[in-house]
Structure prediction request, 61 residues.
Amino acid sequence: MEKIIKKYSSLQEQEIDDIRYWKELSGDEKLIILEAIRAQVWAIKDEHPERLQRIYRVIER
Prediction:
């Protein structure tokens, strides 16, 4: 990931640029970033995510 430094003259200008940035990303790129953030939070809290439980139910017809 390339690091870029930007200077803004107002908070509103920065918020508009943030929105533009997130709109330009693909869904896959957003998911990759989300997973990286989640991994960092788990590392900070020293927790491991619980796995989803699989529940099967037999239904009679």
Summary: The mean pLDDT is 87.
